[in-house]
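Structure (tokenized):
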């Protein structure tokens, strides 16, 4: 009986070891079995999947403006298409701004109003932020997959969203404080966020 127990432990240790060496679909794969003895692998040392940016530790940067209990933001004034903006924010360790409350929308809008003018955009009063309807027309979600209602802010600028030209599937913020759907290929300034206070 004791030998069978030891063999079972060795089997699960081996499985746990294999699971840690593979890119896991979710961190949870490490938790499904914790052997009672014999395994020294620390499940918490598992590297986080790179496609889950909100699971990674955020590092504070000097080029962001921080507001207590709201977050850190940076307005990029050199205009680029929405996806380039999204990647630049990730390269800076953050993400395109996601508005989770009226208070956050106010802070971000004020920062946008105070920033130097956007260059290289046909619409300098708009800045790309982190939502889109790329998955399904008219269903707006944040870059983290939440509906705008669930994220906490969904006030549109007058007449928006209008899916102008049948081709507006990316998200922006107007200096008035309202949201607007924009063409993903058009160059806009953009706002990155670090969820650090
Ligand atoms: Ca659209
Ligand atoms: Ca629009």
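Design, position by position:
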């Amino acid at each position: 009986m004791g030998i069978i127990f030891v063999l079972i432990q060795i089997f699960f240790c081996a499985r746990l070891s294999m699971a840690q060496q593979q890119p896991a679909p979710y961190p949870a794969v490490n938790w499904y079995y914790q052997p009672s003895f014999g395994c020294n692998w620390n499940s918490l040392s598992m590297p986080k999947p790179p496609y889950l940016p909100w699971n990674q530790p955020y590092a504070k940067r000097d080029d962001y403006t921080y507001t207590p209990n709201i977050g850190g933001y940076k307005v990029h004034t050199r205009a680029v298409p929405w996806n380039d903006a999204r990647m630049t924010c990730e390269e800076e360790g953050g993400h395109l701004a996601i508005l989770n409350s009226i208070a956050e929308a106010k802070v971000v809008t004020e920062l946008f109003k105070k920033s130097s003018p956007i260059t290289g955009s046909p619409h300098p009063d708009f800045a790309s932020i982190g939502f889109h309807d790329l998955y399904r027309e008219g269903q707006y979600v944040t870059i983290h997959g939440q509906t705008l209602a669930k994220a906490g802010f969904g006030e549109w600028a007058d007449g928006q969203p209008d899916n102008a030209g049948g081709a507006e599937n990316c998200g922006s913020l107007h200096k008035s404080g309202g949201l607007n759907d924009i063409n993903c290929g058009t160059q806009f300034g953009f706002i990155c966020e670090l969820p650090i206070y």
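Reviewer-requested clarification: Residues 133, 137, 163, 168-169, 181 surround calcium ion (ligand 1) (CB under 6 Å). The domain at 65-194 is CATH 3.10.100.10 (Mannose-Binding Protein A; Chain A).
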